[in-house]
């Protein structure tokens, strides 16, 4: 899905910004992990979790089940619905984007044969 978004952005703007997209994805992932850890601590505190006790109240087990099943699944589903609602990429739009990008790439390959290193035997047009 990320590559489809990057391709659609490149087709729309003409700029390839893969590093920006992946950097933003990693940043959001890190922020969400920090928020998840903070919420985990708050919920376990609400369930009377005590790290020094060997036996925990039954509410701790119930809260842990919520923390690893319902809460992440619900958050993921909510974010996914929002993303799909505002940025739908269907199979048809994906194929159209791929065809257009392939065409642009073939046009670039035809007109941008530039030597990578400065060579005295190559005459450059100034």
Automatic annotation (TrEMBL):
Signal peptide span: none
Entry GO CC: membrane
Membrane-traversing stretches: 20-43, 63-87
Cited InterPro entries: MFS_2 (IPR039672)
Keyword Chaperone annotated: no
Alphabetized GO MF terms: symporter activity
GO BP: carbohydrate transport
Database matches in Pfam families: MFS_2
Keyword Zinc-finger set for record: no
Similarity-based family: Belongs to the major facilitator superfamily.
Annotated protein name in UniProt: Major facilitator superfamily domain-containing protein 2B-like
Gene behind this protein: LOC118410286
